[in-house]
Amino acid sequence: MGSKNHELVPTSLIEKISRLRGGAGSVHKSISALAKVGLIARVKEAKYDGYRLTYGGLDYLALHTYAKKKDVYSVGDRIGVGKESDIMVVADHSGTQRVLKIHRLGRISFRTVKSNRDYLKNRQSGSWMYLSRLAAMKEFAFMKALREEGFPVPEPIAQSRHTIVMSLIDAFPLRQIAEVPDPASLYADLIALILRLAKQGLIHGDFNEFNILIKENVTKSEDGEETLTLEPVIIDFPQMISMEHQNAEMYFDRDVNCIKRFFERRFHFVPTEPGPFFRHAKKTVGKDGVKRLDATVEASGFTKRMLKDLEAAIKEKGDQTAQHSGDEDDEDEDDDNDEDEESENSDADNTEYPHDGQVSGGLLGDDAMASKEDMVEDSMSKLTV
């Protein structure tokens, strides 16, 4: 509750809103227990005594919500990690596997941003955790709208704070596929998806080999002959924008060109026809009575203000990263114990990709301390900052 209005929650406010029996002594005991396992952190050299929620604490709160609602019963392996998200396999009570996506905006560029505190000072609600929550809200809203309109996307199951639970797709990322039997057919399917999105008012914004899964469907004819067909599935929607966006043409062209370049490089396939072009796609928006999904998402509660906050933060983060890319080794003493600032040795360009190593950052990283789980749960059930 305190974190909604304070990035650094004063200790006095924690005492006031916790309502723990035993007074200040009980509060400080709970604070100490939470800090020991990395769910909250004390900030050194701050103007006042207080604590902030860590990504580990935020992870715990999200998992606690899912557990109460029976969306998640167990947590498995990390299957993907990127600049701004972690991907975990989870399961419900019946053992059905699902995917938990944890947004972590600012993880890669955090050292850059922390050296420029004006970024957060000028934005009352501009913490990375707030922005990660917005990214999760946006992705869930778009995934739900797309799913309801029959687009090939994972089933959105639940959203809590900076996380999303969705169905697990048995498929391979396009970037992992070395060859396909009919590149022209798959290319046509992907371009058709770009145009279909545009007709319903949307641009993916990051439509590339990292964010396209390929399902293999095998059908048998009456004589027993098997036929293999490839079905694309779209993932990763935090950057999705409206066809009315001021930079819509740039994003549309970028999506198209990403697919063209990949198919030429990987499959040596070059389309015989130019395009598609934004000016033509723009004329189809809302035609034939199709639903405008950009309007649908806004009506769902993800407001233009939220979208503006998220886009501005992502843009400024990108600018700061480019400007200070050589300064990543600089350390701030006040963040020595912060798990969301661990170095990510990734050269991938996009959100998700398989990774064999372990990555710290949050409750589900190396810094999670399962041995004190019972103590943490007892404390967190009483004290939420």
CATH superfamily of the domain at 172-306: Transferase(Phosphotransferase) domain 1
Radius of gyration: 23 Å
> Which structural class fits the helix and strand makeup?
alpha+beta
Sequence of secondary-structure elements: EHHEEHEEEHHHEEEHEEEEHHHHH
- How confident overall, as mean pLDDT? 79
CATH architecture of the domain at 172-306, by name, is Orthogonal Bundle
Extract low-pLDDT stretches: 109-126, 324-361, 365-385
Count all strands and give the number. 13
Helix content: 25-40%
Shape: globular
**Cα distance spanning the termini:** 5 Å
Largest sheet: 5 strands, antiparallel
What percentage of amino acids are in beta strands? 15-25%
- Across the major sheet, the strand order is 4-5-6-8-7
Count of DSSP-assigned helices: 12
Q: CATH topology of the domain at 172-306, anyone?
A: Transferase(Phosphotransferase), domain 1
The CATH class of the domain at 172-306 is: Mainly Alpha
Note down, in words, how this protein is organized.
- There is one protein chain.
- Among the domains are: 1-53, Winged helix-like DNA-binding domain superfamily/Winged helix DNA-binding domain (Arc Repressor Mutant, subunit A, Orthogonal Bundle), CATH 1.10.10; 172-306, Transferase(Phosphotransferase) domain 1 (Transferase(Phosphotransferase), domain 1).
- 37% of the residues lie in helices and 17% in strands.
- The protein is globular, with a radius of gyration of 23 Å.
- Residues 109-126, 324-361 and 365-385 have low confidence and may be disordered.
- A hairpin with a 5-residue loop joins strand 11 and strand 12 (226-234).
- The chain is of the alpha+beta class.
- The strands form four sheets. A five-stranded antiparallel beta sheet has the order 4-5-6-8-7. Strands 1-3-2 form a three-stranded antiparallel beta sheet.
